[in-house]
Amino acid sequence: GPSPQRRPAAASSGAGAIRVASMAASTKDTLDPAKGAMATDYVRHYMLYSGLTSIDDDSLRPRPALAESFDSDDRITWHFRLRRGVRFHDGAPLTSADVVHSLRRHNDPAVASKIAAIAAQFAEVRADGRYGVTIRLTGANADLPTLLAQAQFLIVKAGQDHPDGTGTGAYRLAQFEPGVRTLVVRNREYWIPGRPHLEQVELIAIPDETSRVNALLSGDVHAIHAINPHSLPRIEASGTCEAVVTPSSLYTNLIMRQDHLPTSSPDFVQAVKHMLDRPLINRALFRNTAMLGNDQPVAPVMPYFNRELPQTVLDLDRARWHVRRGGLNGLRLPLYCSPAATGSVDMASILQEYGSQVGLEFAVNRVPADGYWSTHWMRHAMTFGNNNPRPTADLVFSLFFQSNAEWNESGWKNERFDRLLTEARGEADEVRRGELYGEMQRLVHDRCGIAIPVFISLCDGYDKRLKGIKPIPLGGFMGYRFAEFARWED
Amino acid sequence: MTAAPPTRSAAARLLPMIAGRIASSLLTLFLVSVVIFVASSLLPGDAAQELLGQSATPAQIAALRHEMGLDQPGPVRFVHWLGALLHGDPGVSFVANMPVSDIIANRLPNSLLLAAITALISIVLALTIGIASAINRGGRIDSALNIATLSLVAIPEFLIATLAVLAFSVKLLWLPSISLVTPETGWAETLRALALPVLSLTCVVVAQMARMTRAAVADQLDRPYVEMARLKGVPFGRIVLFHVMPNAIGPVINAMALSLSYLMGGALVVETIFNYPGLASLMVNAVTSRDMPLLQSCAMIFCATYLALMLVADIVAILANPRLRA
Amino acid sequence: MSGALAMRVRNMRLSGRIGLALVLFWLVLAVGGPALAPHPVGAFIDQEVFSGPGRTFWLGSDYLGRDVLSRVLWGSRYTVFLALGAALLAVLGGTSLALFSAIRGGWTDEILARAMDTLNSMPSKIFALVLVAAFGSSLTLLLLIAAFIYIPGNYRIARALAINLVAMDFVQVARARGEGAFHIARYEVLPNMIHPLLADTGLRFVFVVLLLSGLSFLGLGVQPPYADLGSLVRENISGLPMAAPAIIVPALAIASLTVGANLLIDALKPGGKA
Amino acid sequence: MTVELAPPPATGPSDASAAAVEVRGLSITVAQPDGTRRAIVENISFAVPRGEVLALIGESGSGKTTIALALMGFSRFGATIAADCLRVGDMDIAAMGQSALRGVRGSRIAYIAQSAAAAFNPSRTILSQVIEPLLVHGLAGREEARARAVALFRSLALPSPETIGDRYPHQVSGGQLQRLMAAMALITGPELVILDEPTTALDVTTQVEVLRAFKAAIAESGATAVYVSHDLAVVTQVSEHIVVLQNGRMVEQGDSARILTAPQSEYTRTLLAAARPAIRPTADAALDKVLTVDSIHAGYGRIVRGMPATPILADVGFTVRRGSTLGVIGESGSGKSTLARVIAGLLPAASGEVLLEGQPLPRAMAQRSREQLRRIQLVFQNADTALNPAQTVRDIIARPLAFYHGLKGAAAHARVDELLDLIRLPRALADRRSTELSGGQKQRVNLARALAAEPDVLLCDEVTSALDTVVGAAILDLIDELRRELGIATVFISHDISTVRAFCDEILVLYAGRAVERCPKAAFDGHSHHPYTRLLIDSVPDMDPTWLATRAAAAGPALAVSAIAPELCRFLPRCPVAIGGLCDSNPPPLHVDDGRAILCHRAGGPGDASR
Ligand SMILES: Nc1ncnc2c1ncn2[C@@H]1O[C@H](COP(=O)(O)OP(=O)(O)OP(=O)(O)O)[C@@H](O)[C@H]1O
Ligand SMILES: Nc1ncnc2c1ncn2[C@@H]1O[C@H](COP(=O)(O)OP(=O)(O)OP(=O)(O)O)[C@@H](O)[C@H]1O
Ligand SMILES: [Mg+2]
Ligand SMILES: [Mg+2]
User: Fold this and answer.
1) Per the database record, which ranges form the ABC transmembrane type-1 domain (chain C) (predicted)?
2) Rounded Cα distance, D521 and D516, in Å
3) Can you tell me the ipTM of this complex?
4) D399 CB near a chain C CB, below 8 Å?
5) D222 vs C131, D49, D72, D202, D218, CA distance in Å?
6) Superfamily of D52-67+103-275 according to CATH
7) How much is the pTM?
8) Which of C178, C192, C194 sits opposite D388 (nearest CB)?
9) Which one of A308, B232, B283, C102 has the fewest beta carbons within 10 angstroms of its own beta carbon?
């Protein structure tokens, strides 16, 4: 392999200045946290802004950040005390006004916040003196501190309708060209002493995976996001770079609509779930980096994961039995997949293969990535969905499984599930919460028209001279926050 | 029969032609905008939906649609856009919320630079190859060059580009694997950054151009005036340069213009692989995000480039041919 | 008839015969190849990926552990028939319009030429992207879209040829006889442009093969688990650093098919040289 | 070829050792696909004394060009030159290498090609090409070369010698271009000049000027010359010796005078006979007029207010009776083909009428009925381009049969065979493509196609001009026979006045789009003609070596017709007998008497145009 010393040390000014490539950039790139929609945005926003809370390790528990403490008696009304002496990049001090502005924005349709749905539970956000903020919710939610750690809830300056990058984050904005690059330099007055370690970070995007890996291997960039597990051997073999695999709750799921025939038939659903060769998918598509899924959305790395649930395994006899019992033999059904849902095209091929062995004929329809979510997803009897890691089980369940949820992907209705969900949200007792979430996982596993073959791990590649990197299951690049922790060591 | 001074009659002939061409180009540009508009209105989804993505509520989408004017009927939107364009305003990008002209101003120089360098290199190469094989037509060199150019045409460009990266960036560490150019980069750095994209694009266009050159030159070599020149004792090299080329330049330049028009919009794959911020990938972005104003403007630029190249080719053909010039 | 054919082949230059052999080889494979495929085209059967040639997998396995040989056999069918079909359709369409244009002349010609310029000026891949996104990518649509995209290019060439021919005396003779436009196009003009048209078909054929692979670059194209040869190259691109047969074989297949087709066409030209 | 036709021993007209050019046992062979070699020319021997002119004469394809090029050590299509002796001056051409030959070509041996229009590079100025031999052989600097060229232009009687070199080849006339090529050849003062049919492509009137210029220039430079031609009369004017070729072999050689007066071989006699066509008997003119053309105005480009953008024909009219032939003559560009196109409807007239048996025809063919189209058939000027190269002879002839007469299958097959018999082509040729035929054969097919329609009127546009005399004469015989047997009325267009005069019942002379004279054959030998007709008649070379020398120099140079007022006589600028104050102020009147019409101030009056 090439000798490390010949490789360019950094983009421009010697050590401590690195270049990082994420997956996608477009003219949609924004400096407004509320509009952040892609990894590139999250990385950029976490560098520039800070949140009230943050999630710093794989326990996925919220910690104080700009809020030095928070509490609630009923999990409806929450009180946050802000850290004093925190300054924005322009020198202005952080006060409750900034926080109130940042949180209220999400309920303004003109802002087009990505998490307007979550922010809808803010009944009231008000300042409580110069350094206090009170949030009253429409219903109890024990997860609020976790939710507030999300990139969209990062705090911007009061009065800014179009945030310009002036935040309280570890880096200051030096240059921003949507779709091309973001250049940030170290914020020497960062409110966490001793951080960050890098002088300068240039964030670009290289959409083509092969190019991204090549750029890392040739030393043109020092960290890359989202590599295909198939590229892992190349990175390992290079000697100069290494891969970090982050287990996550990201999954690509097969949706069987409960308002269509024959996907609404419990036999059909069971047959499909038993036809899924999960180890094969893990091996062939993900080079064994994934974790087997069990047709419910809570990943093993998440709190409240139900370990008792028996793993569904490939059982063609059982699948055949269900097919016969449901009178589904010889059925021909279109199956929509798209590069938009990671791995769905190959999963569809695998399903097609096994389907032919149990008497089901799937006609694979690969459709373009653009327009997939608006025109195909959930619109046909069988489509694929793709869900990013969510910080809480409640969020996944309420977004995708609650009966009246807008993206109730399979269109299933289960009153008991809905009741449990509301109950768990307001429950303070951790043990009791665990039981409730365990029960919900069982219900989804048994009844819901959703098959989740695997939880996909996130693979990132780093130059070996970049230290301090560890996985945080919320997303690649240490939950998009690697810039705060990474060090450069020659 | 009288010989007027050639320059004046050339101008007399060229000016009306150019004027006519510009008029018909405007018609073509209009047609392009109609085609793009119709084609993109056939696309599923719209900018509002794409912008808000998977997680948008219908209310949000409706609000954004209204803001973008997408709730108006198609023809109305088209007329508005066209009206604004006639006043020199290509509109505001739906997605980036910036004037389209600014976005394009960022990218266009990149595309032009890449195209220009590639054009320069590939024209020289194509002429050399084409002339060499025309001179040896039927011979061994000709067959070898023929198979070489054919194979070059047949290799998908992403394969060429990837191979080049593997060899020159990953293995040899000579050249950057991605082409990051910013206004601050010096020209030496810029050239280094462009080396691989230029190499890949050259491979794509040179073969076609060389084949056309060969055909045109071979055709001229069979003309009686070439035999006459040989019977005058003119050395062969001089025959090719001073007798054949002035006559072959018309068809050659036409083929070249066609190939070169590829360098702007066709650079898509190369732009993607080398992460080069050019117009083609911008246009693909515009398609996928349904950013109509941007899409329209990109299409118009490509079309205008194409028409301009064709015009230049015709002008050169006329200037090179005294019969047309007079 | 067959005797005449045999004569032609015997009189062909070596390169022409090589071309003919290659074309025949791929035609036979396109028709019969899938029947010979040792494994199902979509089966993930190798535990390894990008393995080299071996006993079970003659040409190794691809990035998902599928049998490369089987995939290439199927892929050649798609490439040969799609590309051939689209190239022929494009030439048919472009040439018909060109003949119409050249024979009618005047406004018809002007308007058609403008319209074709319009289409020609659009970058083909992006245009294909729009069309596929709008109309979907069933095989038939793919064929039509690829054909549609290359019609203007062929039109340009065919029109230039036809305009020269229409001015020829023998066309005047036919006109003076009172022949209709169809007869003139079909019997007087067309037969005289067949060789340049063939050459153009050969090039369009290459272009369609490349367009298909370019489409697969954008995630469009033939429906999985099938893939045309270009897509096979594309999907296995990560095997390039290890020179996996999964990428080498389809790339060679494309090269030999297109080069073969063009050598054959070159050799069919009268004189065989020009 | 048999022994009796074997060439005489290679004794030149004078002592061979003094000869500037000596050729003995020259054979040129090409490789055939099966590997064997075929001789294109075989065992050629001749010698040319210094300063004299030798003519190579023979029908098309007899190997004239091949031999001429061999004198420069040059062969086409990879043919191989072999000779016992191939000597020019002190150079042994056969033994010279490529670079030595290159040094000789254009400097010591110069070549004047058949078609100057093709041999000049269209995109470079004439001067740059004329002086190129001097420059590439390093014989002169640019300035000196230019001066020499201008001097040559002047001595070749080219107009504006100072500036003509700055023009491009298409900007000068064919005759001028041919002379410019002579300048290009003579500029290095070569020992040997080879002229390959240098006047064949020219009008008779121009040919005279060019011949004169060549002869003077060669004489002045003292060069030896080899003159290639198929026209005996032309050869007679310039050469001292003649070599007659047939099928690549020498048939006869000797002094010009001897060959003309006492030809020894049968073939030479045929050539002599064909050069002077016999006058054919006039048809017994039936009374009914088949074709009437009445006061036609026509031209090219968009018609605005009854006038085309480029007017060509003005007020042309005539009638043709059943079974009779009208000859139309005029120089190149006089509008002969345009007239044929107007009659056929290919080019709608701007005004005037074409009547078929008294019925006016629609001007454009699109409006004519199929029957009307059938009854007038046009035989195109150039058989090479008038026959579709992609079709077989049978396809070509059968199409009108099917189209007009609905004849298909066996009936059509039989009729095609009949037509082939009629035009005396072997039936075996029916399945060949037209590209595989000789020029004469093509022209016959062209004719057969027209006959297949069974027309009433046959328009023959220069059907024999591109053929050699022997073949041409055969075609004329054929048309004449058809006319008599089928009663077809013929319009026979030609620029060759001797053919027209021998062949036609009435003659129409076109000058610059105007019918300056119409004259029945019977009256043609009379002496009152339009001055232009006179010029045409006088320009046809005689088989008399002194003809060129005795013929008076032509009147002034051709002027652009557009330079004179449209209503005046168009021939005025060239007219040797123009009457000052009359011709340049009044339009010429039309004189009509005993069947002839002349458009001239002189005609009919006491000062008749004839001299
Ligand atoms: N490509 C070729 N290969 C072999 N023989 C050829 C080829 N082209 C022409 N010939 C033959 O060479 C012979 C001599 O041709 P050449 O041009 O010398 O005749 P020519 O007397 O000059 O005729 P023309 O009067 O038509 O110019 C002809 O019989 C012709 O058929
Ligand atoms: N399509 C055309 N457009 C414009 N001018 C033309 C066209 N065809 C012919 N002419 C011009 O019309 C004039 C007469 O041409 P025409 O062909 O009738 O002459 P011609 O007497 O048949 O000559 P030739 O003996 O050379 O055949 C010429 O000056 C020619 O340049
Ligand atoms: Mg000749
Ligand atoms: Mg004519």
Assistant:
1) 76-265
2) 16
3) 0.81
4) yes
5) 76, 11, 19, 26, 6
6) P-loop containing nucleotide triphosphate hydrolases (3.40.50.300)
7) 0.83
8) C192
9) A308
